[in-house]
Amino acid sequence: MPSSSTTATPRERPRPSVPRRRLRWERPWQEHLPLYRALFADPAVGRALWPAGAGPGRPQDRGEQVLAADIRHWQERSFGPWAFFSTETGLFVGRGGLATTTMAGRQCVEVAYAVRPEEWGQGYATEMAAVAVAYARTLGLSEVVGFTAAGNHASRRVLEKCGMRYERTVQRAGIAHWLGGLHPIV
Questions:
Q1: Following CA atoms 87, 98, 123, 57 in sequence, which dihedral angle do they give, to the nearest 10 degrees?
Q2: Which of 22, 77, 78, 169 could serve as a FRET partner for 29 with CA atoms 20 to 30 Å apart?
Q3: Any bridge partners for residue 114, and if so which?
């Protein structure tokens, strides 16, 4: 008979680890304006999102423009990008979610994300994209797309991790972009 020290009782059995959620998200409101301003005025974020330098307006005004568009998107479509915060610290991490866009001449729903540079490399963009894809499923969307500048390998990897597969290269703002899609979303 095995000794009690080598036999696990049901209480002693290791439990499978459940990943804890590192982010919480909320619908954007006007109160998020200082956070959006800081995120979208950051030069590193500008280079990542608008590599041709053709972002909307002046860098110091982009946060206000993006926030207004996000709020309007929610009002018109009942979904859109969220503001994401660290559950551990409560600090703003970035903005991500679903947004309608026109890509290659057709209307589609994009998985979008922008993370504060000091949080890059922590997996937050991947978490934001995964939340967006899961939400697309609950909305019953048949597909989502994602795109990034062809040279932005980190962003492309985020899209691949959430299930997107390369479809084609498209021109946007005068530069080549990797376009991926996930369809059907099941």
A1: -100
A2: 22
A3: 95
